[in-house]
Amino acid sequence: MMGNRTPRVTIWNEYRHERAKPEVAKVYPEGIHQALRSGLTPYGFDIRTATLDEPEHGLTENVLNDTDVLLWWGHGAHDEVDDRIVDRVRERVLQGMGLIVLHSAHYSKIFKKLMGTSCALKWREADEKERLWIVKPAHPIAAGLPEYFELEQEEMYGEFFDIPDPEELVMVSWFEGGEVFRSGCTYTRGQGKIFYFRPGHETYPTYYREPVVRIIANAIHWSAAERGAAPQFGNAKPLEAIRGQG
Amino acid sequence: MMGNRTPRVTIWNEYRHERAKPEVAKVYPEGIHQALRSGLTPYGFDIRTATLDEPEHGLTENVLNDTDVLLWWGHGAHDEVDDRIVDRVRERVLQGMGLIVLHSAHYSKIFKKLMGTSCALKWREADEKERLWIVKPAHPIAAGLPEYFELEQEEMYGEFFDIPDPEELVMVSWFEGGEVFRSGCTYTRGQGKIFYFRPGHETYPTYYREPVVRIIANAIHWSAAERGAAPQFGNAKPLEAIRGQG
Amino acid sequence: MMGNRTPRVTIWNEYRHERAKPEVAKVYPEGIHQALRSGLTPYGFDIRTATLDEPEHGLTENVLNDTDVLLWWGHGAHDEVDDRIVDRVRERVLQGMGLIVLHSAHYSKIFKKLMGTSCALKWREADEKERLWIVKPAHPIAAGLPEYFELEQEEMYGEFFDIPDPEELVMVSWFEGGEVFRSGCTYTRGQGKIFYFRPGHETYPTYYREPVVRIIANAIHWSAAERGAAPQFGNAKPLEAIRGQG
Amino acid sequence: MMGNRTPRVTIWNEYRHERAKPEVAKVYPEGIHQALRSGLTPYGFDIRTATLDEPEHGLTENVLNDTDVLLWWGHGAHDEVDDRIVDRVRERVLQGMGLIVLHSAHYSKIFKKLMGTSCALKWREADEKERLWIVKPAHPIAAGLPEYFELEQEEMYGEFFDIPDPEELVMVSWFEGGEVFRSGCTYTRGQGKIFYFRPGHETYPTYYREPVVRIIANAIHWSAAERGAAPQFGNAKPLEAIRGQG
């Protein structure tokens, strides 16, 4: 990607709940994307935003080509995301763009397409406590974090979470109602590095919480790191003599 | 799946090359599926076959519901496989059907859909030698195998192979022309266990070779093993009292 | 190992608490090893037991050579296990003997030696509830299990658990007091397959519980499976001509 | 570890062959450690060296406490490394020091202790060609590398390599004589990040080769990255009320 260049981040948000539901607007008056932008700005990223109702959902070829890491928050309108834009995002991921999938975006078209599974899970909205335990403190996404942190009120997501085994499992959540969840999971697809991060229900101020913002900032750095050469595919000449060919 | 029941295997073959190309017909006169059937029969499986040009490609709901493990060989006609059948197969895999993906089926719709990547690779047809090294001898798919085995002539597949990191890497190939390849790779998707196995170009008698047949038989047993309970998804009642809810 | 032969199981138990502490003797009057033996017998294994205070801790060369899978329960006397016996067990594991490490044996010499880490964790004895969630229902160790099961009273073990990343994470525990734990973890070392399974504090009747016994039986089958050829190490002749050597 | 601080690197070398064997002295007149130091200096690390025959092998408490990443090259004198120093190094790794294990150090006490396996392999000294293929180009250790690179003459190491499954497999080698090898492998032990890197036989100028030096520099950055909080172990108070305890 970019050696030591400042990562160029695009925060994509469905941005419907905030405009339609007063209880969400109260928490995120300018939208989840703007709250994330404010929280991440001190980390020194080059940030832009994009939303569902912009032309091409704000994800033009130009925008994606200028993006090192894409954040994705969606919930009620996954089906309204144009398949052509999904394919465009997927291509960029396979070529090396980072992707950070937030909360209810477990059910986004782009995440399901990259995972190959249903990405289904158990859920409950009951204002319950979540405690996230770091199970891989050596991982760069855990940099600077305490052993665990709590969110006083969150939506519950419970196992079985129908995802491929994470390459690295960074966090596991404990829920007051009795469930556990693999809450911080890394994947590689092509040259692209993907991080799924569970918290972030739209009716709670989760994205203003420091450990949450720090994790997302860590994941941006992790997924924006420089890559090896783009692979060559297709018919290949031999690098050594082959006997059968004289 | 089935505890100690005999695994019910369906061998799916595109079955076009064998009918159209004399050099392939010479090697597999009744089709690759029949050669595999003959080789696997002594292992005691309950085997049927299905091919592209049958109605519903031979993969009706009934056939899939009666299948514990599906083998898939395809090459030139991936695009002719009906998307509805692909979705049907995928559903069964997520519910626990095993899937063994053979050679050029790395580019099949079903494999790409379950992997989420391009599944692209390097290739060359040059009658060259392949030597497969077992790098995980403790894996059940390696049961009874020597440390390595050779195929005197095979098509070359070379890295970078654009797949997700295998959960378990069982075999790595050495090629005469200078490449290496991750040739035996396991994955889990939902309840389904998937094995990708590289060898098997249609112009070579690979599927008559003992180590090759043994590996496929091992993979059938591995992918047909009994599962845990089918997961429940969706809204879930709490298992413990939640304070906020009195 | 042994194809379809009945697995030969040796249950090793420290067997001190049961003789010294009335509250333990009440739960396991003949020792944890005998309780496990009784529970596992209906599964059709060929079982023997061994304990710390027998000569060579009951783990002679002959016993180990006749063992396909070794179960290990220890707690207060890890240091009394002779290093020569530990090395002997380790050699057999590397050569293909299965090893099932139970509860407080996370701190046994043999487990620490095979893991390379401290195997430290958080713990608490508070008669609290544990709920084990299956996070890999396709794994053979989960065969026949429900989505989760509960132990009304257990000792708590909490993260961070200082183990290498499991190859496969099969279970995650929820604890009433607020912690989570990776409770079912698989590893391969050499040709040996290892399963760490958390529950089993000596003051609770955990090893009489059906899901617990079933998991151990599943793990025995999983770790006893046939292997590939024993690897050859050391100086190796080339398999292909090397130019520099004319 | 250290956020954006310059990584403090200690290069440890057995430094015997270079003094005893003219054919090695010709290639590395000041020792492998000095060649590595020269190659790595332009990357801006804070580098020191240490060798076997210094007091405490040059690895005093102070030196290790001032080290973020330790490189280790050893071959003929593994047994002369004091077990107390090995334990000291291991403690620092578990607490978060990076460790880069080079070539014949696969058989070092420290690597075997951290892996838990024999770390045995096949080998051959035959001036043969090695070609290293990148199989995970998205990994930071592959940053800036081509798809593959060649070493005209190297010692052969061949599978089966008796190591635990790597967490991430970054490189696979092809050898002229017919073998393959997992040549770039990552592990986590405690808070420490470990990279095993195959090339580097003492009679070849491998450590002057640009891709080799770049890989080691990448691995230093990767293993020096900031960590999460140091875990707390031992008896832990509950974070939630436990019913049984009133």
Overview of the structural elements:
Four copies of one chain form a homotetramer. In chain A, helix 5 packs across helix 6 (109-115). With 246 residues, chain A is of the alpha/beta class. Chain A has a single domain (8-119, 182-244), classed as Rossmann fold (3-Layer(aba) Sandwich). Chain A has a nine-stranded mixed β-sheet. The termini of chain A are far apart. Chain A has seven helices and ten strands. Chains in contact: A-B, A-C, A-D, B-C, B-D, C-D. Chains A and B meet through helix 6, strand 5, strand 6, strand 8 and strand 10 of A and helix 6, strand 5, strand 6, strand 8 and strand 10 of B. Chains A, B, C, D: This is ThuA domain-containing protein. Chains A, B, C, D: It holds the Pfam family ThuA. Chains A, B, C, D: Residues 8-222 form the ThuA-like domain.
What count of helical segments of chain A does DSSP give?
7
Please identify the top-level CATH class of chain A: Alpha Beta
Q: Could you list the spans of chain A in which at least 5 consecutive residues all have pLDDT below 50?
A: none
Distance between the termini of chain A: 42 Å
Instruction: Using the CA coordinates, give the radius of gyration of chain A.
Output: 19 Å
If you average the pLDDT of chain A, what whole number results? 96
Largest sheet of chain A: 9 strands, mixed
The level of helicity of chain A is: 10-25%
Fraction of residues in β-strands of chain A: 25-35%
Q: Can you tell me the CATH superfamily of chain A? A: Class I glutamine amidotransferase (GATase) domain
Structural class of chain A: alpha/beta
How many individual domains of chain A?
1
Largest interface: A-B, 47 and 47 residues
> If you consult CATH, what is the topology of chain A?
Rossmann fold
State the strand order across the main sheet of chain A.
Answer: 2-1-3-4-9-8-7-5-6
Question: Which oligomeric state applies?
Answer: homotetramer
Specify the overall morphology of chain A: globular
The beta-strand count of chain A equals: 10
